[in-house]
Amino acid sequence: MRNLVLSVIGDDRPGLVSALSDAVASNGGNWERSQLAQLAGKFAGIVVVAVPSDRADGLIEAVTGLDGLLEVAVHSGDVAASRDGDWDSLTIAVLGNDRTGIVQELSAALGASGVTIENMTTGTREAPMAGGMLFEAELHVMVPPSVELDAVRADLERIAAELLVDLDLN
């Protein structure tokens, strides 16, 4: 079996997932994982499929031939790398007034500590009483055993205070 990672984007409209899944299934592929979303009028995401090695070329041709519906880029995927030692899992929730640089500052602090972001969801919404926009994010991260979890928490709390955002760490 061969793992392929498909990155997809197209103008949002009904039937996009159906067209992609038909191309995958008709070429012997198994849809294993995905994250797909409608953002700013576009439908975008990433899909991991497994396919018998002898059918991979046909699947690649089928999914990249969805012109007019989706632009699909195909990348070779590997089995997830194992991590040495006991990594700590941390969930970070952020809520505050929207402003430029929130993601940059949080991700820079995490990256500098060796923390890896497993999943991140962000968005903005109108502030219910005060007006303006609120920024919210949820990050699921993994902290390597060589990094002090308390040090990561302290860095994030310092940044949250500077950014004037609420931070919830679990």
UniProtKB/TrEMBL annotation:
One example of a Gene Ontology biological process annotation: regulation of DNA-templated transcription
A Pfam family: ACT_6
Family annotation (InterPro entries): ACT-like_dom_sf (IPR045865), GcvR (IPR016867), UPF0237/GcvR_regulator (IPR050990)
PANTHER family: UPF0237 PROTEIN MJ1558
Stated name of the protein: ACT domain-containing protein
